[in-house]
TrEMBL record:
The protein's name: P-type ATPase protein
Transmembrane segments: 109-131, 137-155, 306-330, 342-363, 830-851, 863-881, 893-919, 947-966, 978-998, 1018-1046
Record-linked PROSITE patterns: ATPASE_E1_E2, COF_2
One Pfam family linked to the record: Cation_ATPase
Domain P-type ATPase A, first and last residues per copy: 170-292
Gene3D superfamilies (alphabetical): Calcium-transporting ATPase, cytoplasmic domain N, Calcium-transporting ATPase, cytoplasmic transduction domain A, HAD superfamily/HAD-like
UniProt-annotated location(s): Membrane
Listed CDD domains: P-type_ATPase_cation
Reaction(s) catalysed (UniProt annotation): ATP + H2O = ADP + phosphate + H(+)
Keywords: ATP-binding, Magnesium, Membrane, Metal-binding, Nucleotide-binding, Phosphoprotein, Translocase, Transmembrane, Transmembrane helix
Example of a GO cellular component annotation carried by this entry: membrane
Entry similarity comment: Belongs to the cation transport ATPase (P-type) (TC 3.A.3) family. Type V subfamily.
NCBIfam families: ATPase_P-type (TIGR01494), P-ATPase-V (TIGR01657)
Length: 1094
């Protein structure tokens, strides 16, 4: 890090590897500015140092010698509300306007930024040389194409900016409390942290992040999470002030910017208030917008290889540049001619159309994906998809159906005096008369939920909704039927919500249950509870009903109420893919006042278990086939879910992520137990294998491991499964095993959003190319972190993912991978074709420069327009192969095979041209070329030039056919009909020009008449032999020897290398390959002793 500057400007340079970040900070003293203290209060300062980086203001705290993000102090400390106008002005000066503004860059700026790219600058240089050489036609075509390309790119960029701005920009008038408690209407852009915001009772769009101070608010957070289910936010209770405030921990109390408020509830005549926490780009919506505006860097390995190879071509052109100057000077050419010819050799060796030609495959793949309702907002990611070797899937909504279906429930028979509680048989109906304890399990299910009515329609969590509808009970919210109340006033009433059982036998019942208090569901607690009062009973006791994960509810229950076979029953259902909910109760002796204030922890204990509810989550019809297709292609599949571990493992088995021919182990931690180093103890248990009949007859299992011994596949012989809590412990306490764990663990359950992102990053660190497929709910961080994020939700909820499928299942994954492979192979093929074309033409020009000659403008025009441009454009039109190959295509442009291919073809083409050049010179009818002297008019026609031109045009056709690869990554050459028709056309046209060209055509192209028909026929024969040799060289030496035998030998050497950083750097290859070769056989590497249980 370096610093410098003086006066009112300060310059800081941050260095990380090859990346440099230059920051310019400025002193501000236009008015007395306020900055935050450590406790969140504000203090006035005369001047501050600050800078803006990616839309966020960073302030330098002089005494602390650290940078403070304006977002930081608002995520952890309370901010005192502003009362007077001067404080508001000061905070506006510190935090800026509350606006997520996407400024449209002026069109001239966009045009200039596009035109100064290296690609277009080199094109300007090339066309300048061509115009000076009077090669005007093709130069004009290049200029027109470049201008059109720039205009299209600018219009596309402007369209994206407009769409993003239209999506994020919004402002409205809001009510705030300022100036001693008076209500003021201000623009939402004038909000500052600390303002007291009044939330309208019938909904609004939130323009900031705020903490709820009173009442309850029902919001729709689909803009941020993709989950359209209404979420109830509750006020931050007083005891929460004693802890450090955290957005993640207290998200139930935070209203996020961009979410839609559906309804608020509080006392009649009272307004719901919230404290403004964050504004502008610091908000949750602002962070999402910044992630779109400043995406993570793309994998630049391919681009770096491209520039290195272009540099190699540049070195060749440098040699040709020196050779040209020497030859031209010795031949006595004029200075202008020497300069033009020397510069022309650079434009020949490094083709200006190379970048545009290489984008053809990506553009065609993007169009084909669009036809299949898969939309890509980052085309450069398509090539990366060709290298994907692991896909992470969310479970619910991605592998399985969105909704849950009620399966069965199991009640609890109360124990006798000396007995033990037992489960009832399975019940498929929620009828109280069929269950023990007077059917209190049904009563608990009917009352323990967070459902509410919005505009008369019942809304809430889908699970709660399904279970409540299954009971057939009726919900009535107090005041809903009275003219002097509306829904927004239903807060903290004596009977805010009343639940009634269904009418039985046509007779109404006076039984009813009032929900006095709700303890909302918390992902960290994994449960929710309600306090219920039954007015029809004479006593004043209340009941607490609790439901949640079986493990958590079990820990809260009295052991005497839990059957001995509790966990075996739970595991049995979980292993068959059912989602389980445990329900419990407790009798409370409380009055209404105490019930409203009692702490949650004081009542959620010593519960009595009522039973279990099993919900069925079916996998989608296409899931099994897609997973098997990926497994057959040796693409690893991983499940990352927030669901129960055993349920996740069952679904993983059912859909094929856990293969029936492999053992599965569960990694768990032992709370309270530590090892000799003070770390939490970790155990590994073998899981019970599910039945194999699901996949036994699946043909993809056959030949799955056929090529493993050939070095083509490195894989594990077992599966590991882990929960989020254990994964967190390993990440913090056992970081040395994290790399190995992610290589063999295929099921990650109970994972938080940040843990999903950490998993993706860990997979990337060991060398995997990762795709993440999710439905947009809680997957945004992982979708953004992966090499290729694939969202199955609406585009609005997944604007950060490069790919969005309108078909909400995972059939899009193999499609994207196959199109990525086709695009990658196409890019490599076009690059080698363009490089081969340039080097072939370089040899032609070098031969002709020896006699001070060059190809005519007509010959150049025919090569550039009809051969190169036409064929390059249609080259990428070949569609992807319908089946995924068992091994990915080469991903390195500077591989030995690619370099040998280009150099070998150069030797074949160059040798053929040299042979033709010498043979033509020795013919009896040969007329030597008369080179111009001084400023004489140049006649570019020559017999050697014509003969070499005739052979070279067939060489260009040969190169495009040789490098147009077909299966297993692209369809056959014949499937690309326009391409085949073009090849046939230019071949026949070239043959016609060589054998039977009329005089006017020869004169137009600048060809000389080669009088011997036999010699012209010999040139055709030489071109055919050249084509055969080139094809055999590519097929036998490059594909079978270098890419087949040598690649396998190299992989064997890599995986056998000792596991060390030194040898890792020396041998190259992916780190995960060496890890799997070391630990893929047995899981005993994880622990000295393996604990097994069935």
């Amino acid at each position: 890090m370096g610093e410098g500057g003086g006066g009112r400007r300060h310059h800081m340079t941050l260095e990380s590897g090859e990346q440099l970040l230059h920051l310019y900070a400025y002193k501000s003293c236009s008015l007395r500015t306020v900055v935050p203290r450590e406790d969140g209060s504000m203090r006035e300062v005369d001047e501050i140092r600050w800078f803006v980086y990616r839309k966020l203001n960073y302030i330098w705290i002089e005494k602390e010698y650290k940078l403070l993000d304006n977002d930081d102090e608002r995520d952890g400390q309370w901010v005192a509300p502003g009362d007077i106008l001067s404080q508001v002005s000061q905070r506006l000066a510190t935090y800026g306007l509350n606006s997520i503004e996407i400024n449209l860059r002026p069109l001239p700026v966009l045009l200039f930024m596009e035109a100064i790219s290296p690609f277009y600058i080199f094109q300007i240089f090339s066309v300048t040389v061509w115009y000076n050489d009077e090669y005007c036609y093709y130069a004009s075509v290049i200029v027109i194409m470049s201008v059109c390309s720039i205009i299209m790119d600018v219009l596309q960029t402007r369209g994206q900016e407009k769409r993003l701005r239209a999506m994020v920009h919004s402002s409205n008038e809001v009510e705030v409390i300022r100036n001693g408690g008076s209500v003021v209407r201000v623009s939402s852009e004038q909000l500052v942290p600390g303002d007291i915001l009044l939330i309208p009772p019938h909904g609004c769009l939130l323009h900031c992040d705020a903490v709820l101070m009173n009442g309850t608010v029902i919001v729709n957070e689909s803009m941020l999470t993709g989950e359209s289910v209404p979420v109830t936010k509750v006020a931050l209770v007083e005891d929460a002030h004693e802890t450090h405030f955290s957005i993640e921990k207290h998200s139930k109390h935070v209203l996020f910017c961009g979410t839609q408020v559906l309804q608020t509830r509080y006392y009649r005549g009272q307004k719901v208030k919230a404290v403004v926490l964050r504004t502008g780009f610091s908000t949750m919506k602002g962070q999402l917008v910044r992630s779109i505006m400043y995406p993570k860097p793309v994998d630049f390995r391919f681009t770096k290889d491209l520039f290195k190879f272009v540099g190699f071509l540049g070195c060749i052109s440098g040699c040709g540049f020196v050779y040209t100057i020497i030859i031209m000077v010795l031949r006595g050419n004029s200075l202008r001619r020497v300069i033009v010819r020397a510069l022309d050799i650079i434009t020949i060796t490094v083709p200006p159309a190379l970048p545009a030609a290489m984008s053809v495959g990506i553009i065609n793949a993007q169009l084909r994906l669009k036809k299949k309702e898969i939309y890509c907002i980052s085309p450069s990611t398509i090539n990366t998809c060709g290298a994907i070797n692991v896909v992470c899937f969310d479970k619910t909504g991605t592998l399985t159906e969105d909704g849950l279906d009620f399966h069965v429930l199991r009640g609890i028979i109360e124990p006798s005096i000396s007995g033990q509680a037992t489960f009832t048989t399975e019940c498929t109906r929620m009828v109280r008369d069929e269950l023990p304890q007077k059917g209190e399990l049904v009563t608990a299910i009917a009352t323990c939920h967070s459902l509410t009515r919005i505009n008369g329609v019942l809304h809430g969590d889908p699970l709660d909704l399904i279970l409540f509808q299954q009971t057939g009970w009726i919900i009535e919210e107090a005041g809903a039927g009275e003219s002097d109340h509306d829904e927004t006033e239903m807060f903290d009433m004596i009977q805010p919500t009343i639940i009634k059982p269904p009418h039985t036998g046509g007779r109404a019942t006076d039984e009813e249950y009032s929900i006095i208090r709700q303890f909302t569901f918390s992902s960290s607690l994994q449960r929710m509870s309600v306090i219920v009062f039954n007015p029809s009973k004479d006593n004043h006791t209340m009941s607490l009903y609790c439901k949640g994960s079986p493990e958590i509810v079990h820990s809260l229950c009295d052991p005497s109420s839990v059957p001995k076979n509790y966990f075996p029953v739970v595991n049995e259902y979980a292993q068959h893919g059912f989602r389980l909910i445990a329900v419990a109760r407790r009798t409370l002796n409380l009055n209404f006042n105490k019930a409203a204030k009692v702490p949650r922890a004081a009542v959620e204990c010593d519960l009595e278990l009522l039973g279990l509810v099993a919900m069925e989550n079916r996998i989608k019809p296409v899931t099994l086939g897609v997973i098997n297709q990926l497994n057959k292609a040796h693409i690893r599949t991983v499940m990352v879910t927030g669901d129960n571990l055993l349920t996740a493992m069952s679904v993983a088995r059912e859909c094929g992520i856990i293969r029936p021919n492999k053992r599965a182990f569960i990694v768990e931690h032992c709370p309270g137990e530590v090892d000799s180093r003070g770390r939490t103890k970790i155990v590994v248990k073998q899981s019970v294998s599910s039945s194999d009949d699901i996949l036994d007859n699946d043909p993809v299992l056959q030949k799955l491991d056929v090529n493993a011994e050939l070095g083509e596949l490195i894989q594990s012989s077992y599966h590991l499964a882990i929960s989020g809590s254990t994964f967190a412990i390993i990440s913090h306490e056992y970081p040395e095993v994290l790399d190995s764990l992610v290589c063999v663990c295929d099921v990650f359950a109970r994972m938080a959003p940040d843990q999903k992102r950490l998993l993706v990053n860990s997979l990337q660190e060991v060398g995997y190319t990762v795709a993440m497929c999710g439905d947009g709910a809680n997957d945004c961080a992982a979708l953004k972190a992966a090499h290729a994020g694939i969202s199955l939700s609406d585009a609005e909820a997944s604007i950060a993912a490069p790919f969005t499928s309108k078909v909400a299942d995972i059939r899009c994954v193999p499609t994207i991978i196959s199109e990525g492979r086709a695009a990658l192979v196409t890019s490599f093929g076009i690059f080698k074709y363009m490089a081969g074309y340039s080097l072939t033409q370089f040899v032609t020009v070098m031969l002709l420069y020896y006699i001070s000659n060059i190809l005519t403008d007509g010959q150049f025009m025919y090569i550039d327009m009809f051969l190169i441009t036409l064929l390059a454009v249609l080259f990428g039109n070949t569609s992807a192969y319908e089946k995924l190959c068992s091994h990915p295509p080469p991903t390195r442009l500077l591989s030995v095979a690619n370099i040998c291919s280009v150099i070998g073809q150069l030797a074949i083409m160059g040798g053929t041209q040299l042979l033709v050049f010498l043979m033509t010179t020795s013919q009896p009818w040969f007329v030597p070329y008369n080179a111009p002297r001084g400023s004489d008019t140049e006649d570019k026609r020559s017999m050697q030039g014509t003969a070499v031109f005739y052979v070279s045009i067939f060489q260009y056709i040969t190169l495009v056919v040789v490098y147009s690869k077909g299966p297993p990554y692209r369809n056959t050459l014949y499937s690309n009909r326009p391409f085949c028709a073009s090849i046939a056309f230019v071949t026949l046209m070239s043959l016609f020009i060589l054998m039977w060209a009329p005089p006017w055509l020869r004169d137009f192209m600048g060809n000389m008449d080669l009088p011997s028909v036999e010699y012209r026929s010999l040139l055709v024969l030489i071109a055919c032999i050249n084509a055969i040799v080139s094809f055999l060289y590519e097929k036998i030496f490059i594909e079978h020897f270098l890419l087949g035998y040598m690649e396998r030998q190299t992989k064997r050497r890599r995986v056998k290398a000792e596991y060390s950083d030194e040898l890792y750097a020396k041998n190259g290859g992916a780190l995960y390959e060496r890890i799997l070769s070391r630990i893929g056989g047995e899981p005993s590497w994880f622990l000295p002793r393996l604990s097994c249980s069935s």
